[in-house]
Amino acid sequence: MVARPLPPARTVTAVAAALAAVGALTATATAPASAHAHTDARHVLLLSIDGLHQSDLAWYIAGHPESALARLAAGGVEYTHARTTVPSDSFPGMVGQITGGNPGTTGVYYDDAYSSALLPAGTTACAGAKQGAEVDLTEDLDKNKDSIDAGQGLSGLPGSILKMTGDARSLIDPSKLPVDPKTCKPVYPYSYLKVNTVFDVARKAGLRTAWSDKHVAYDILNGPSGTGIQDLFAPEINSRAIGYASGDWTKDNAATEQYDGYKVQAVLNEIDGFDHSGTYKLGTPAVFGMNFQSVSTAQKLPTSDGLTGGYQAKGVPGPLLAKNLAFVDKEVGAFLTELRKRHLDGSTTVILSAKHGQSPTDPTALTRIDDGPLLDGLNAAWKAAHPGAGDLVAHAVDDDAMLIWLTDRSKAATDFAKAFLLAQSGQGNGIDGKDKPFSASGLKKLYAGADAARYFHVRPGDSRVPDLFGIAQYGVVYTGGKGKIAEHGGAHADDLDVPLVVSGAAAPHGVRVGDTVETTQIAPTILRLLGLNPQALDAVRTEHTRALPTR
Q1: What pLDDT digit, counting tens, does each position of 168-191 carry?
Q2: Which of 348, 400, 460, 479 could pair covalently with 43 via S-S, beta carbons 3.0-4.6 A apart?
Q3: Pairing of β 517-518 and β 82-83
């Protein structure tokens, strides 16, 4: 989805007039005429609360009007109809926020994707090698994915995790990376990204940068320069959760909160002017922040810590999610308190959003479908119709959308795959674990071949675009078993409708914008807040992505 100009305001106030006067997007403002803008920002703190919906934020604020989240929203501009990227996965979502681009422009469609122009990991004899490779940006790239330090070898984990290096790339195992057929060298995440990032631009302007996220593969946020982020703290979330019996840090919500707490401390150290470890005094970064994972696990887990996960009814958080929203509120409050303590509140803009939402928020709509038999059936049908042929599916990733790359990219092959999938019906299971029928492989709409390319605004035959992109029926989650009650990646409102708040320096107080905006607009907004040129971003120039109205 390319960013589009927004329609004119329906209500004209002194605040809206001020927004228009500086050339910002026109907004519907509900603030009193006394609302005012701060001085320009010297720092931007970006927070991604993964899984959080705008409706979750509104629900929490309504019940906790004195909370940190309520103060943050009231102290700035709240965009009540913000949408993240499609697919609504962590990687395209985060990449969109810091580049200003959607997947067709950035080349990043998912955390586990495919390219028909690269060679498989481990390839050493590149001349004449068959092209086509998985592009894995998950924990699988770590030197040791079972350790929270990704294989650095720290002692005293997890308590010593803040000693983890800020050079995340050094913890990537190059033997697990796809290979460039032209150079016969591994393709690191940063060089896979097609466009530059706000970190790239800030560094070129001589500003300090930092970020904290969940995998060392977030090296991708460095951008093509490879040097955009000076301090990238990326403890591995899918490592073994020490002290918990449940597996990794996502399988128990208390564990996820503990994990998020390490990144919170890293950001607090950076607010105080240190590196993430709190060891070296380097100055507070101009662009920095983190993602929270604990809302996402509270939405996905059926139960955790004796509490029911997900939603009690459509859009009404259940007890586990309500508890976790209070946790996030406390940590956001810690950031605001520390900014005031360090006298940085008047020069720091806080931007709060989410890489993605989570679907469904209506528990009765849940239909869990095992996608394995669907893909196996497609391969079997293809081989039966084409004796001697191999599997048709080269790679697939299905959460609450379906992305499939094929070994044969012809129209005949994509049409065959589309017809097969739309003809499949069977039994999944619902929120109660009982059988629940599905039709059309659980799909509402399936784009194939050239239609899939057009959906993402790229040319047919693009080396990265999926050959099939399926939008699932509402409530469908592709998973074996009964361990998940929600997922993301799709194009439903529950996947896309995320919060977006710009608060603090250079933002007026108490403004609500009701028009549709996109999280890709965060990137040019960050640069504008810092007095840098948004046109320095490649994706902004390509998609004509406009900055958000902030003053």
Answers
A1: 999 999 999 999 999 999 999 999
A2: 348
A3: parallel
| The two structure tokens encoding residue 26 | 């026109």
Instruction: Give residues with Cβ within 8 angstroms of 377, minimum separation 6.
Output: 420, 424
In 3D space, the residue among 295, 276, 235, 277 whose CA is nearest the CA of residue 259 turns out to be: 235
Model-wide pTM > 0.90: yes
Distance CA 282, CA 112 (A): 35
CA–CA gap between residue 551 and residue 548 (Å, rounded): 9
- In the chain, the amino acid numbered 506 is A
Neighbours of 293 (CB within 10 A): 24
- Band (pLDDT 50/70/90 cuts) for residue 115 is very high
Whole-number Å distance between alpha carbons of 23 and 39: 17
Contact between residue 397 and residue 410 where contact means Cβ atoms under 8 Å apart: no
Rg (C-alpha) for the chain, rounded Å, is: 23
The pLDDT of residue 246 is 86
Report the pLDDT averaged over residues 313-342: 98
Q: Percent helix, strand, coil in the chain (nearest 5)?
A: 35, 20, 45
- Residues 193-225 have pLDDT tens digits of 999 999 999 999 999 999 999 999 999 999 999
Residue 319 burial class via C-beta count within 10 angstroms: exposed 0-12, middle 13-18, buried 19 and up: middle
CA distances from 471 to 353, 396, 474 (A): 23, 14, 9
Greater pLDDT, 16 or 287: 287
Residue 536 three-state SS: helix
